[in-house]
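Hi X.,

You mentioned you wanted examples for the new student's onboarding notes, showing what a folding record looks like when two proteins sit in one file. Here is a clean example. The first protein comes first, with its sequence line followed by its structure tokens.
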Amino acid sequence: MSKNEQGFSYIDVMIAIVILMVGILALMAGIAGGVIQSRGQQQQMIAKQVAATTMESIMSVKETDPERLGWDAVGNIGSNVVDGTPRGIFISGMQNVSPNAGADQIVGTADDTGTPMMSMQRQILIVDQCDPERPSYNCPIPGTSKVRVRSVQVIVRYFVGALAREERLTTVLTDYAVVVN
């Protein structure tokens, strides 16, 4: 047998297998990263929709059924004291997101129903703001006007794998009426 007819040694085969395995593992890592990225985008889209729906619900409270709800109901539970009674209806703190509004048809209140959405939580922060032109109790120089401006922030926390992410929506609501003469 001449030297040219010997073929590959075991070492040559083992090196080729290691190089092939490194390539396969890199390909698998790329595929796994793509799947995680796709899942993350889906979760982000759902979180944005939850935040937008919640914000719409908060805005609708101000405009619909002023006898039952109205401006005084736009607040976290225990806030907006009117005649000694707290009127705020939105749950404070980070809460699990239930998919359905309860009997009051308002998202983000204590009567929301349904199986909570997996790995998704929501926080609603409603804070009275000072209007210097019409000072209320919360201004640096307190006044006697009713609070007419509130900042609203909806935070939706979701998870992509073990990584927590958040979507935030922030706005300012006012209780000013347009008077047409």
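Then the second protein repeats the pattern, sequence line and then tokens:
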Amino acid sequence: MTEQRGGSGLASVLRIQGVLVAIALSAGLAIALVHEWTRPMVMAQRGGLLGDAALEVMPGAASYRIYVRSADGGLRPMGDDDTPELFIGLDEGGHIVGAAVVGSGMGYADVIQLVYGVDPAAGRLTGMRVVASRETPGLGSVIVDDKDWVDTFTRIHLPFDGEQNLRNLRVRSNANHEQGEVDAISGATVSVVSVTRIISSSLADWLPILKAEFDELSGGDRG
């Protein structure tokens, strides 16, 4: 009788332990699933206006990952105290579709902050959006308001010299977009030149990093 009670007690303990382990595993799995499900929403919230602009300049992007430059010049995921610097766009299937870089610099009246899309493999821009600007209404503000001009940044190719070194974008009347030229706008020369300079300066910093790490950021999985 004692042996039966002892065996029954041990079995009860083991059953309780098994239930507790199952609950712990289920809870852990639920937390992991919720984390994965909410991660795009959390990222979107952290990206804010910059993230909204990034999605607009990365064709086919449904979500993104946010990165900043690390101390050694490489990339690392954005931390809680960081400001977004680079967005890697992903389509609905999680495949990489492009990159968007945050840039800023002085315009005619104040600092201009913008986001531009770039396809390092194709060597071209995929769009541009000014996120913050206080340029003169009706003049410098065309860098935001002139949709036709803004849309030309989806057609601009990166200019390289004969040794494949990146050259600066140039502002020209009757611009040849395939030669890395940006359309001039009468009456808004300073603002247009400022946007062009911001992108050129930013590309000089970011393009080597993107070429080196673009595929690795997505595990080599491009859409």
